[in-house]
Amino acid sequence: MEGPLGKLYSLPIAILLAVGALLSAFLFYSMMKYAETGNIIMVILLAIAISIVALVIGQAIKLQKFRDL
User: Fold this and answer.
1) Among the residues of the chain, which ranges form H helices?
2) What is the spatial distance between Cα 32 and Cα 39, in angstroms, rounded to a whole number?
3) Minimum mean pLDDT among 6-10, 11-15, 18-22, 39-43: which range?
4) Is the pLDDT of residue 5 over 90?
5) Quick count: other Cβ atoms within 10 Å of Cβ 50?
6) Which of 4, 19, 36, 61 has the fewest CB atoms inside 10 Å of its own CB, making it the most exposed?
7) How far apart are CA 32 and CA 43, in angstroms?
8) Which of 7, 14, 12, 8 is nearest to 55 (CA)?
9) Burial of 36 (C-beta count, 10 Å sphere; 0-12/13-18/19+)
10) For residue 13, what are the CA distances in angstroms to 1, 41, 58?
11) Using CA of residue 27, residue 28, residue 29, residue 31, what is the dihedral sign?
């Protein structure tokens, strides 16, 4: 797979899940900090970022599973 996510798609699934969980946890923590200060724009942007991370990790796992077939 070529492109900017090519290396990400070739990582083992366990590492992908660990990186995704850590990145999502950091983004969620940041979202809660902005929610405490009342910055709704950053809360919405961070929620979108969390969903993008989940979609990319899910896509990478799906491509690896299809490649194994």
Assistant:
1) 6-10, 13-37, 40-68
2) 10
3) 6-10
4) no
5) 18
6) 4
7) 8
8) 8
9) exposed
10) 16, 33, 10
11) positive
